[in-house]
Amino acid sequence: MKVRNILGDRFKERAFDIESQNLMTRGGYMKLVGNGIYSLFTPAKRIQNKIEAILREEMDAIDGQEVLFPVVMPASLWQSSGRFESIGKELLRFKDRSGADMVLGMTHEEAAVQLAMNVAGTYQKYPFMIYQIQTKFRDEPRARGGLIRVREFTMKDAYSFHTSQEDLERYYERAYRAYERIYARAGVPEVIAVKSDSGMMGGKVSHEFMLLTDIGEDSIVICPECGFRSNMEACEAITENAADPELKPLEEVFTGEAKTIDEVGEMLNVPNEKTCKAVVYQRNSDDSYVLIFCRGDREINETKLTNYLKSEIHPALDIENANLAAGNIGPVGLSTNATVLFDRSLVGATNLVCGANKAEYHLSGFTPARDLPEDTLFIDLTKAVQGGVCPVCGKHALRVRRGIEVGNIFQLGKRYTEAMGMTYDTETGERRNPIMGCYGIGVGRLIASICEEHHDDYGPIWPISIAPWQVEICALRANDEQVKAAADMLYKELEDAGVDVLYDDRSVSAGFMFSDADLFGSPIRVVISPKTLARGCFELGSRDKSFGGDIAIDTAKEAVLDKIRELTEALNAKVPERL
Amino acid sequence: MKVRNILGDRFKERAFDIESQNLMTRGGYMKLVGNGIYSLFTPAKRIQNKIEAILREEMDAIDGQEVLFPVVMPASLWQSSGRFESIGKELLRFKDRSGADMVLGMTHEEAAVQLAMNVAGTYQKYPFMIYQIQTKFRDEPRARGGLIRVREFTMKDAYSFHTSQEDLERYYERAYRAYERIYARAGVPEVIAVKSDSGMMGGKVSHEFMLLTDIGEDSIVICPECGFRSNMEACEAITENAADPELKPLEEVFTGEAKTIDEVGEMLNVPNEKTCKAVVYQRNSDDSYVLIFCRGDREINETKLTNYLKSEIHPALDIENANLAAGNIGPVGLSTNATVLFDRSLVGATNLVCGANKAEYHLSGFTPARDLPEDTLFIDLTKAVQGGVCPVCGKHALRVRRGIEVGNIFQLGKRYTEAMGMTYDTETGERRNPIMGCYGIGVGRLIASICEEHHDDYGPIWPISIAPWQVEICALRANDEQVKAAADMLYKELEDAGVDVLYDDRSVSAGFMFSDADLFGSPIRVVISPKTLARGCFELGSRDKSFGGDIAIDTAKEAVLDKIRELTEALNAKVPERL
Fold first, then answer.
1. Which residues of B, range 71-100, sit inside 8 Å of A by Cβ?
2. The CATH fold of domain B251-379
3. pTM of this structure
4. CATH for the stretch A11-236+400-453
5. Most-buried pick from A313, A555, B166, B256 (CB within 10 A)?
6. B444-469 per-position pLDDT tens digit
7. In the predicted model, is pLDDT for residue B47 greater than 80?
8. What ipTM was reported for this prediction?
């Protein structure tokens, strides 16, 4: 394709802070249509098509059957699983012309069960996996970062059905490996799998595939000692408390206007870890209060709290109706209508400062094991911390990093098949619900993540496997007949050889042409100019500057093909074997 | 792929009257999810993928750039063209979580202009064409016929932009030819182009591509003499009236309870063509009346009427407020608040019977040229008829047939670029609106139409180019070791050769296996059984029964590849050259 024919402008001015959004906007990859809704220009669509081809190959290789579910579904389908009611506003609900309730698909578990229901009624039909590549809509409150977090997106979603947990687990391993292959083939072998919280999907075991980057929205906890990796949401928090040699008595201390942990700690000269703080939430459903006590230097993990309570929550807006002394709430002598919970970080702690449930006073000498009822339950409700204890190897080694989620896999279990009444007959004639797994990858976010991982200040550096064009030919002074003839010929030779070639034969300056080429991000570049012709050669270089030099004109095609092969082999070397 | 692994059941019972819907349901191609909304099983998705590949190749060959527009769009985009208000309930409107008005894309002219706007500001960027293959939603009041008329569908839609009408027309010819190639490549060279009404799309010249079939929803007018072809909606109606030698005077005739043309004609012994009838409509906007007079044997073409009035209409529900004598309405001595129109079928007519605007009376001897004011306008508002006059060659040769629309192309002109303010600068610095064309093909409807055209009582007969599997291997008695070994080997050989092979190695009866194979519709079939092995051969046959016979085992792979080549060449022979 010729650069002069590509629709879309490229420009130099920095457009956004997040680099993939900045470069893909500056490079003419996409255009905003509405909040969190984009159109893609042809360079981005070409990348998407190549990623989709990789996804199809890897899904087919694990015995997937490609199907297609609808974007618009009747609400009744989502009512049959209970999610029409349980999911928040991310699920876009509307009425059609006949007044029937409809939804826009944000995920397709219900549709997968509906498709498989009645056509998989005996055990012999199992296992099977169906997948689609389709548009999804999720009414995100906070779209951000270009294609990183959008409302409409293309997703590959797969659903497997099994007759035993063991069979699901075997398949889950194959899917896990297929995912590792997909990321490596797409040029981001850096993507790691972390344990995750299953959230609204149901099910127990699940993993997210994360690209570690500072612009990520997720916190990832990693143990460099043993290789443990988890999303912060799902990471067990372990807090060690060294017991003081001497237990002090509970005593009221005047603290006046000091309310926060920092203020109280400063006034009494006590570090945060020797305090017990109170955090108040409200349930979304009825605004009822939930009060959590934890060590003063810990933070509440809202995902754990939601999972424990089995209801959605938000930080309390006011606590007027909770009969609590704001800023002085403490666990001793408390009288409240709130649900009161104690975090595990308090286990083994001694001589803490906490609220006295009385304005202007705190207590010192609070020792939970002594001062709380014997049957007090301590549960894990806080976040793991940098330098904290690894829940697997027990070393004080945890690191907290930022990551973008570029895929996820779930062991769903019977959550959907039970709710929707999908059954099969076993060999002995029993009726059972199949066990499901599901496996998703958002294509647009993957493209943006690849750009995050592979770019410089001047543009994306696309991996050879997914680059919109593998090679760009820059003909400097294409109005020179010799330059034009040589460039035209190489363009034709490479196209005939099946190479995706971009050809710039515009009458523009070298600087202008090269900055456009940087934004197109083709991994290989050939420069043809009167100067190179005078030397009897072309210049062959890479977008990442790792190589560059003259090549003979008469073997130029072969040199380019060799380079493509070399880059492809280097990339494939990082792709693990199939399971 | 093995038949045993394919999700979806096949069954014998007739499911629906329309054959494509019947066979594709019985064959496990699709499943209804909601009114006019389907999921596709893998056989249908495989066909869709192959059609999409043909669409991409043909669109790329006419310099198309693949892009992607959103399914969900802000209403403001559709307000900018005026269509948010002008289109009826087919356009699904809803509000997102922030209360913003949104629509589901049923077509993407606005999105195409939005994408191209600001990046095609000078004449040098023209012409260009952008296309996508994407899900669309049209809230059809009457979904029917399986994939023939649905609410959600996959569509290839293309939009070209030009700086002159001549350039648009040149490109339109190329697109027209590309469409002919697409249908021929998909195995339906029978598809014909007909002139069409541009309807809600705006613009003037447009064509629909039609597959002629009795289950079609459109009426197509064809002249076998000169090749003229038109959708009934857009077909000029020519009515010849032989003047009677003697003009009779206008006379009141008592007709009592006779109201309809048939009743009055019978009572007075006058054929329908010697009558003038009145038809009453109401405008949708304000229910105001529109009264049309035409020859008694003609029918109103509502599309022409809508276009003439520039407003949507419906047959009058009652005429109480129109001051009209129901059943006796006539053009002479009429007093009404209705808009009164006269159809061209009355030009040259003499001595007609018409209503007398008085209960129980009609007039005889009505001669429009004599009895209507001299400045009466006669306009074309009726349908062409079987045996009628061809508007091109003038012969009484018109045939009326039924057809399914499987694609359309429009010369849109500046309808959208003007409304949305998209401009470019000409070479001389003038600011102008680009001229657009648009080009659509619904993928699902095309699949159903191919099935309509190519099936027998037992199932679809898919063309080699789009068949989900080109070849099916039926291993009868696959529990026989020799059968299994021979069939396994051929399966592997063909898969390794890149053939799409379906392999049935289930332990089922020959009848059961063959009726499934008929429903899968693979154009080529290889049967391997103890009997064929005893003869030292396999059986090679075609789904359409056009060939069948023994092939030697050791050259079986070659024989199958030859047959694929032969069918492919026969199909390609009907594909016209590119323009």
1. 71-74, 76-77, 89-90, 92, 94-98, 100
2. YbaK protein (3.90.960)
3. 0.91
4. 3.30.930.10
5. A313
6. 999 999 999 999 999 999 999 999 99
7. yes
8. 0.90
